[in-house]
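Deviation from plan, reported transparently: phosphoenolpyruvate complex.
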Amino acid sequence: MTNNNIYFVANWKMYGNLRSLKSLNKVINIAKSNLLKKAKIIYCPPYTLIDQFVKKTKNTKIDIGAQDCHFKNGSGPYTGRISANQLKSIGTKYVILGHSEKRSEGDTDQIINKKILIANQEKLKIILCVGETYKENKNKVVLNVLKKQLNSSLKNLKKFNNIILAYEPIWSIGTGLIPLNSEITKNVNFIKNIIKKKYKIQNIKVLYGGSVNQNNINILKKINNIDGFLIGGASQNYNKLIDIVKKTTI
Ligand code: PEP
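Because the crystal trials were delayed, the predicted structure below was used instead.
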């Protein structure tokens, strides 16, 4: 891990309902105790819970994010969509963009780029996911894939202070498979170097995501160039999430 605050982004995907607020209370209580001083916890529940989560976490160290936003901003005839402006208006601070589950539903790098520019305009903090498929990994084209995803989705972006990147190998999401630490280190270094060289940004934060859980965290936390984790499945259980946070930060 780097020496900075360590990020734990809880991506709840299409899980959770009002009853989930109870488990949020437990995480809030632990976050209040100075125990998790270095931890920056960001919950990304489904849209239906964002308002409640924002209210519950007011005056705590926990922030709330959305899992996506539409590529058009403001209001308009886009049935079923939510704009960055609507998210901002209810206190959402972060938005995950480019998640592979959204890419598999049709989000191209160009669409992701539009979403990034809009979310940035709304001053939402953006967690941009990049990563390769299993086939791309086996064909050893990971670095090309990462470069293309970064270059296309960050096009025309002028300010990077609201950008966090997440390296998420698609073959690792929800499968229980994780790359070797050396592989993650190499790919994260590559990402950081692109951002440094092309955009002159020195300290971009890069998280790792893909099957992080309470059992493999002691191995993953040894990776010294990452700034935290994007956690899907395991983050929906507060015991597992707290276990991951404690093992990484204490
Ligand atoms: C994710 O949703 O981005 C993710 C990494 O999921 P999981 O931890 O379940 O692999």
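Residues 11, 13, 99, 168, 173-174, 209-212, 230-234 surround phosphoenolpyruvate (CB under 6 Å). We consider this an acceptable substitute for the interim report.
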